[in-house]
Design a protein that fits this description.
heterodimer, A: 427 residues, mainly alpha, three-stranded antiparallel β-sheet, globular, B: six-stranded mixed β-sheet, elongated
């Protein structure tokens, strides 16, 4: 039933979603970067022309990836990983600085960002290590090694400085959770983050009161036969209150004003209208402008090429990190929701693909791919619509950027290649 | 469970995002406001600021064109900087600096590169302008003064600041607004209303015509011309008389409350605060903290009124029935408060009201003052009555004029003295200095003039004001046309006015008579002190004079206050008589007096406290 050709076995639904995302991206890049002098869409001096060129290059990459032997990726995973680490380290000597971050190699025709490549190779290396028959995630030592694999690129990327890219690597923890890492590794940071945000927004007193009410409700509503000792719960509450108190101290005494401003903006802490105006003009400028632009789109948007705010100088980086504002302004709520839904079904489809792998290496790599793409999507759109603080990372497949497009394609299609071979592997 | 983790997170993120987007795009959605929409360009059309005329229709303030060189940084191309700088009359560093500043403000919006070029500079620049792409010239109008005087009355205009922009949404950065005087008070009438045009731009920042077919555009509304009550000739004459002297003069038409002249010395030419030298000149005036030319002494100085205040004490005593015009007091070249003797310059003898006023006898008025208080059981009661009478003359409170600044002066109350001395620890003798206009009473020259107007009108006055006609129509706010009555009955004024007339005929001002004009007045000589190195030092007395004329049908009331001018008739009296003559006759018959007043200065007096050496006061140098 499964023919020889990889084209018969590849998951065309995912390919379709991929193509759709690329198309949406390109249309919006075209709209934001179109100038009066523009002639054809193949003009390489324009950004949309360049992006189209890289779409072509990506096709080449896809073809190459699909015709490489499947085992190649698993076998050489460690070597790829090492190569990318060397490339990251080499930046300290030969890197090119753009916008304050030394993250690129200047290859003449385009700037190559090794941290993009390292995302793929780290996912491969992690999958390879975890899928080894001898590795056991429950073993502390093995868990430690896995974390080391994730952390080395982070250590190399942070000083560039590029905190956005560094953050991406932590998403690989989802691979570990899938492989049996207990959830409280996830729960504790989430609880701490919640406590941090709620303390800043409502103050320690309200946090303490709500915790106590929650505990009482918990004990009042639980089933009588569901036994839970009361002491650890009280212990937890006390600990949470202490943490909440320390948040205030750290916020006021350890953080610098610029950090405080960022949090003030994110959590809408500042109520004073003049200070708010000040924040909007300085660190909050991007967020304020992008929110305003999205808001002005309304339900159906202003129409293709009609967005006035995303053109000109109003929204910064409107074709890269803030491309989603263009969707919001020109295509309105209909457009933004469609893109969100598209991403959601795309990711869910990838989860289905990952789960159907017989080979654990393929499954783990699949999870790595989803995690990396998901964190980009979450952080980028969260930032643009004002839910998260400003962290500069691109929206996969949509944002302008040849290097980014190329490596996201590579990341995804290695997985699709692995998936196309899942039945053979089983034999 | 572990298989579901990632899927649940994906779904939760999707729901959160769509929730947030619904909030932004559905709930808070409002279509772009015109002013916020970057695709709509707003162009303002400024009407000419209204002209200001004097009471006889003589032009005081008009407009002159000025030309701002504007730049839109994004649209500039490379240019011959050196030649351009020469044309603009600035050096290269300034040019580079201002270009940077314009870029920082906005690369897309116009900024002023060189403000207010003169007509000549503009003419030179105009023909070469098209070579400089991204630059253009914007015409605007500046004030043009037809008189070198009345700076304190007219006020000046300047660019709106951040506070103005925040408090009044009408203004846009770079616009002008009245700051003081008439320009401030009648800002909205004078400025008119700017017209607005909205221009739709396409996505390449090109104009493609009026927004919504020009339906929202408005036409400019012209600024209204106004006539003020000032008499240009009198104002200018008064200012020349004030040459080298510090003080204030206010002249009022008592039958209407119109302010004929409002002079502060030293003053400055209003034209100094126009054009490119404006800020340099402003700083010079503003930081002259010794002679304070920007401090309007006619409405802001609050010295003791001195002897003119005696007339009010006489009126109060008559109203309270504690004296008759022929009630007599004995003057021992002074009078006694307990065992302390206070001096008097009148020459001594028995004084009634007439001779008390015309000789300005301190003993007579001290006696009168005591009688007012003696009528009441307690000093507190007497004080309340006295305060009520005095305040009815417009003293001790803001007058409510249409001059935007002012001071309330002071009529002390019982609370004032209770705080000072303690409850029941003072009596009329303690505050006896108030009887002769020294002590704790204080009044601005405007209040002095107004109080005299109430005497001239025999019991009422009109709130002094500066507006006469708006847009050629003479209906003004009724609060300036309704008389305000004092608490003194009409018949009590006659003996006081008679005394004041005799001041000229036989009294302290007999040297300053004006031929053919019946005039009533009162001199004042006010002791004053300053601090030098923390020590209280007496300075030469202030010279004060109030007068009105003609007595039968008063046309002008005047109050003159000359700092350190020695006794009342010496400077203030002469200046007042010259101004009255100028106003009523239109010309001066006493040429040598005029010449002396124009030439004399008091600079030597003002230099004394700063000389660092001991000095004499009240010298008879004439």
């Amino acid at each position: 039933m499964y023919g020889k050709s990889v084209l018969r076995r590849i998951d065309w639904l995912t390919v379709f979603f991929y193509a759709l995302l690329i198309f949406v991206g390109w249309v919006n890049i075209y709209s934001t970067t179109l100038t009066e002098e523009s002639t054809t869409i193949f003009d390489l001096t324009t950004r949309y022309g360049k992006q189209l060129f890289f779409v072509g290059i990506s096709m080449g990459v896809i073809i190459v990836v699909l015709f490489i032997e499947t085992t190649f990726f698993e076998r050489f995973a460690s070597i790829f990983y090492l190569i990318s680490l060397v490339l990251l380290a080499g930046l300290f000597l030969f890197g090119k600085t753009i916008a304050g971050a030394t993250s690129w190699y200047d290859l003449g025709f385009f700037n190559f960002q090794p941290s993009e490549l390292a995302k793929t190779t780290t996912a491969l290396a992690l999958a390879k290590y975890l899928s080894d028959i001898q590795t056991d995630i429950k073993n502390r030592k093995h868990l430690f090694y896995a974390i080391v694999i994730i952390s080395i690129p982070v250590v190399l990327i942070l000083p560039q400085p590029d905190p956005g890219s560094a953050l991406v690597y932590f998403s690989l923890f989802f691979v570990l959770f899938r492989e049996g890492l207990p959830f409280y590794y996830l729960g504790i940071p989430v609880i701490l983050l919640l406590l941090f945000a709620t303390t800043l927004m409502f103050g320690t007193v309200w946090v303490a009161i709500s915790l106590v009410i929650l505990a009482i409700l918990f004990f009042a509503l639980k089933k009588p036969n569901f036994k839970i000792p009361i002491v650890p719960v009280i212990f937890f509450i006390v600990l949470a209150m202490l943490f909440s108190l320390s948040v205030n101290f750290v916020f006021n005494n350890v953080f610098e004003q610029r950090h405080r401003d960022r949090f003030a903006l994110w959590l809408s802490l500042e109520k004073d209208e003049t200070k708010l105006e000040q924040i909007r003009k300085t660190i909050g400028y991007n967020t304020y402008q992008s929110e305003k632009a999205i808001e002005s789109g309304g339900f159906s948007g202003k129409g293709f090429l009609e967005g006035t705010r995303t053109k000109g100088d109003f929204v910064p980086e409107q074709d890269t990190d803030y491309i989603f504002t263009s969707v919001g302004e020109e295509w309105g709520f209909v457009g933004t929701t469609s893109v969100i839904l598209l991403f959601t079904v795309f990711f869910l489809r990838l989860v289905v693909l990952a789960e159907r792998q017989k080979n654990s290496f393929s499954r783990m790599y699949g999870y790595g791919v989803i995690s990396i793409l998901l964190v980009h999507y979450f952080v980028n759109i969260g930032m643009v619509i004002g839910l998260l603080p400003t962290i500069g990372i691109p929206l996969p497949f949509i944002s302008y950027g040849g290097s980014g497009l190329l490596f996201f394609t590579l990341l995804l299609f290695i997985f699709l290649k692995l998936d196309s071979n899942r039945l053979k592997e089983g034999i | 469970m572990k298989k579901l983790l990632l899927s649940s997170i994906i779904v939760i993120i999707g729901i959160t995002f769509i929730g947030r987007l619904s909030y932004l795009q559905l709930l808070s959605f409002s279509p772009d406001q015109i002013l916020e929409d970057p695709a709509i360009k707003t162009i303002y059309d400024y009407p000419e600021r209204g002209y200001i005329y004097d009471r006889h229709g003589k032009l005081l303030v008009g407009n002159q064109p000025a030309y701002d060189v504007m730049v839109i940084p994004r649209e500039t191309k490379s240019l011959d900087t050196l030649e351009f700088c020469t044309l603009l009359g600035i050096d290269k560093n300034t040019f580079v600096e201002r270009m940077e500043k314009a870029k920082r403000y906005s690369p897309r919006l116009p900024s002023v590169l060189v403000p207010q070029l003169s007509k000549e500079d503009y003419a030179r620049l105009q023909e070469k302008m098209r070579r400089y792409i991204g630059f253009y010239i914007q015409k605007r109008s500046l004030r043009d003064y037809m008189t070198p005087s009345a700076a304190n009355v007219l006020g000046y205009i300047s660019e709106v600041n951040e506070t103005d922009l925040k408090t009044n949404p009408y203004y846009v950065a770079g616009e002008l607004k009245g700051r003081t005087g008439v320009e401030k008070q009648y800002e909205e009438l004078l400025r008119g209303r700017k017209g607005v045009k909205y221009i739709q731009k396409n996505r390449f920042n090109r104009d493609i015509g009026p927004y919504k077919g020009g339906k929202l555009d408005t036409l400019p509304e012209l600024g209204k011309e106004i006539h003020i009550t000032i008499d240009k000739a009198l104002q200018e004459y008064g200012e020349t008389l004030m040459h080298g002297k510090r003080g204030g003069i206010v002249a009022i038409e008592p039958s209407s409350g119109e302010i004929l002249a409002m002079i502060s010395g030293p003053t400055y030419d209003p034209a100094l605060l126009v054009g490119r030298q404006r800020s340099r000149n402003y700083n010079k005036l503003h930081y002259d903290t010794i002679s304070k030319p920007t401090w309007d002494r006619s409405i802001l100085a609050e010295p003791s009124p001195g002897s003119p205040f005696k007339t009010l004490n006489a009126l109060v005593a008559l109203q309270e029935g504690v004296i008759e015009p022929n009630t007599k007091f004995k003057c021992y070249n002074g009078f006694y408060v307990g065992n302390t003797k206070r001096g008097c310059h009148c020459g001594g003898g028995t004084r009634d009201m007439n001779s008390g006023i015309l000789r300005s006898c301190n003993a007579y008025f001290a006696g009168t003052f005591r009688k007012i208080y003696a009528k009441y059981a307690t000093t507190d009661e007497g004080m309340d009555v006295w305060e009520k009478h005095m305040k009815s003359f417009g003293l001790g409170n803001y007058l409510g004029t249409d001059v935007p600044t002012g001071r309330p002066g002071r009529i002390p109350s019982k609370a004032f003295y209770d705080k000072w001395y303690g409850d029941n620890a003072w009596a009329s003798s303690t505050i006896i200095s108030n009887s002769i206009g020294q002590g704790e009473v204080a009044a601005t020259p405007l209040q002095l003039a107004n109080m005299t107007a109430a005497i001239a009108n025999k019991g009422y006055f009109f709130t002094p004001h500066i507006i006469k006609k708006i847009g050629g129509i003479s209906t003004i706010d009724t609060k300036y046309t309704e008389p305000r009555h004092t608490t003194i009955d009409k018949e009590h004024f006659d003996p006081v006015i008679e005394g004041m007339a005799n001041v000229y005929k036989y009294g302290t001002a007999r040297w300053v008579q004006i031929p053919d004009i019946e005039i009533a007045g009162k001199t004042g000589t006010v002791e004053n002190f300053t601090r030098i190195d923390g020590e209280r030092v007496q300075l030469t007395d202030h010279s004060v004079f109030v007068a009105f004329a003609p007595i039968k049908k008063p046309e002008i009331v005047i109050a003159v206050y000359i700092e350190n001018g020695y006794y009342g008739a010496r400077y203030a009296g002469h200046i007042a008589s010259l101004m009255i003559e100028k106003y009523i006759k239109g010309e001066i018959t006493r040429k040598d007096l005029e010449k002396r007043m124009l030439e004399k200065t008091l600079e030597h007096e003002y230099a004394k406290p700063y000389s660092g050496e001991p000095f004499k006061i009240n010298e008879y140098v004439w």
